[in-house]
Amino acid sequence: MKYPDNAQRSAEYLRSALALMSKHDAALHPITYAVWYEYASGRNPSLNHELDRQVQLHGRIDEALTRKLYESHVADLDPQTVARLNAEFQRLLEDVSTSAARTGDDANEFGLRLEKLGKELKPDMPMSVLHERIEGMLTDIAAVHGSIRALTQRLDHSQHEVERLKSELIRAREEAVIDGLSGLLNRKAFDERMQLLVSNLSAASKDLALVLIDIDHFKQINDTFGHLFGDAVIRSIGQLIKSSVKGQDIAARYGGEEFALLLPETPLAGALVVAERLRCAFAQSRIRRYNSEEPVGNITISAGVAAYRAGEHCNALIERADAALYTSKAQGRNRVTVAE
C-alpha cells in the first residue's frame, strides 16, 4: 500500500498515532506505530473495523494482539528488518527518556534551591550575602535553561528520527509486497487483497472480474534471447499492466510469467475489453535486447477472464479464470477466452 500523504497530513497522522499508542499496552516500536498510523489514516477499513472490535472486547490492545493485527492487516516484514527497526526505535525512546529525566532532576534541584533561598532571605541580610545568593540563583537558572534547551534539541532530533524510521518501515513494507522485477504486487499480497475484497463485496456492488495473463512461449524466449531479455519482457508487461489499472484495480505478478488483474465493479464484458486491449498492445510492442539496437517483436500474451459468482470462494474464481487461460493456450495462444 502506498503512502501519498504530504508532510502536514503525515504529521497529523503521526500525532494521532502516538496518542493512540500511549493508551494501550503494546511496546512502543515500529510495528505498533505502523498499526496505529494506518488506523489514524483511515485508509485500511478492515484494520479499523477489527481494531475497533478488539478495543470493544478487551479495552486495551496488548503486544500479542498488536503483532497479530499487523501481520493480518498491514504487512509482513522479514524478522531481521523488524528486529533492527525495533532496536532503533527502542534506542530513540531511551534517549528521549534519559534527556527528559535529566531535565526533570535539574528542575527539581532548582526548586529545592529556590525553597532554601526563600528561607534564608532576611530583611537585615547584608548586601554582599544577598548579592552572592542572587549570583547563585542566576547560575542555577542558566543550568536549568541549558538542560531544557538540550531536551528541546533532543526532541527535535527525535522527531526527525521517527520520520526516518517511518519512511524506512514504509519502504520495507512495500518491498515485502511488491515484485521487484515487474513492479506489481507479489502473489502473497495479491491473494490477501483478493480475499479481503471478496469478503467485503456488497450486494450493491457485486461486479468483480479476474483476468489471468500468461506470456506465450516464455521458455523459448529465454532459451533464444537469454534470461536478461526474458526479464525485460516481464518488466515490459508489468509496465503495460500497471499503466492500465485504475482506481481499485489490483494487479500482480502471479507466477514466473503469469500475471493477474482483479477488476472490482467491472462486469465480464468490461473485463474482456481490458484483456483484449492489453493483448493487442503487447502484440504490437517491441522490446529492445540488452546491448543491441534491434528490438524484438512478435511476443504475445494469452488471457483468461472470469466473473465472480456470488458466494464462491476465491480459489473457485481463480480456477475458472485459469481454465479459460488454458483454453487460450490450447487454441493457439495470443487470444483471450472467457470462462464458461
Verbal overview:
This protein is α+β, with helices and mostly antiparallel strands and 340 residues long. The chain has three domains: 7-73, no CATH class; 79-177; 187-338, Reverse transcriptase/Diguanylate cyclase domain (Alpha-Beta Plaits). It has helices spanning 7-21, 30-41, 45-58, 63-73, 79-120, 127-177, 187-199, 218-225, 227-244, 268-283, 314-330, and strands at 208-215, 250-253, 258-264, 287-288, 295-296, 301-307, 336-338. The strands form two sheets. A five-stranded mixed sheet has the order 2-3-1-6-7, with helices on both faces. The longest helix is centred in the middle third of the chain and has 51 residues, at 127-177. The two termini are 33 Å apart. The mean pLDDT is 79.
Assembly state (oligomeric): single chain
| CATH level 1 class label of the largest domain | Alpha Beta
Q: Which structural class best describes the helix and strand composition? A: alpha+beta
- Percent helix: 55-70%
Distance between the termini: 33 Å
Average pLDDT taken over every residue: 79
The fold-level CATH name of the largest domain is: Alpha-Beta Plaits
The CATH H-level homologous superfamily of the largest domain: Reverse transcriptase/Diguanylate cyclase domain
Calculate Rg over CA atoms.
30 Å
CATH architecture of the largest domain: 2-Layer Sandwich
